Amino acid sequence: MGLMDWMKSGKNKKNVSVSKVNADAVAVGEMAAGNQSAATAAVGRMMAKKNASTKILMVQDGDYLSQVTEYALKMAQRLDCEIIALDVCDTPLQFSGERREREIARFEERSKMNSAKFAIQVEAQGVRMHHVMEIADSETVIARLSAEDVGIRYVLTKPDTEDVRAHEEQAQVPVFDLHCSRIAREL
């Protein structure tokens, strides 16, 4: 007897609640294979995502672009969420010796100064902010941070330099929603 036949037969006296679950979110293959621990871990990650407070990961390179900071602040106010200001740069890694140390110090100084200015703006608007600074590949750091903190839902990055020059104040700030975009699966 199929589901439709069962529904028509009248044997369904109980209320049935059906909720749609993204097939990728639950390790269907793991459950079908009988790997209950992997399926349990997948369901645990889903529940942690659902219960975590939403956060915006604002990715900069030490120099804060006003379009990105303003957008992140407005978005955080509207969505009532926290901002994680990530300063990440891999440029110092291409040097060695004293030059590398100077580049790292310069990056850290810029990052601290600009994040302190941004923190004042954020605090005045009643938004919480956390600052993270790393010298590494940005994609690797974003992937690690989003895996560690399931509350990170949105990633804001600097627009392309040419787009900023061409559109001045109207430059589009790239925003990635990790809960519905492919980037979440690729990272």
What is the secondary structure topology, with strand pairs?
Layout: H1 3-9, H2 28-32, H3 36-51, E1 55-60, H4 66-79, E2 82-88, H5 97-124, E3 129-134, H6 138-148, E4 152-156, H7 161-167, E5 175-177, H8 182-186
Parallel strand pairs: 1-2, 1-4, 2-3
Antiparallel strand pairs: 4-5
Short descriptors:
single chain, 187 residues, alpha/beta, five-stranded mixed sheet, 5 strands, 14% strand, globular, disordered C terminus
Describe this structure in words.
- The protein has helices spanning 3-9, 28-32, 36-51, 66-79, 97-124, 138-148, 161-167, 182-186; strands spanning 55-60, 82-88, 129-134, 152-156, 175-177.
- Mean pLDDT is 79; it is low at 182-187.
- The protein starts with a helix and ends with a helix.
- The longest helix is centred in the middle third of the chain and has 28 residues, at 97-124.
- It has eight helices and five strands.
- By secondary structure, the protein is α/β, with parallel strands linked by helices.
Count the helices. How many?
Answer: 8
- Helix content, binned percent: 40-55%
Tell me the strand order in the biggest sheet: 3-2-1-4-5
Instruction: Write down the overall geometry.
Output: globular
Strand content: 5-15%
Give the SSE order as H and E letters: HHHEHEHEHEHEH
- Number of beta-strand segments: 5
Mean pLDDT: 79
Radius of gyration: 22 Å
- Largest sheet properties: 5 strands, mixed
SS content category: alpha/beta
Low-pLDDT residue intervals, each spanning 5 or more residues: 182-187
Straight-line N-to-C gap = 43 Å
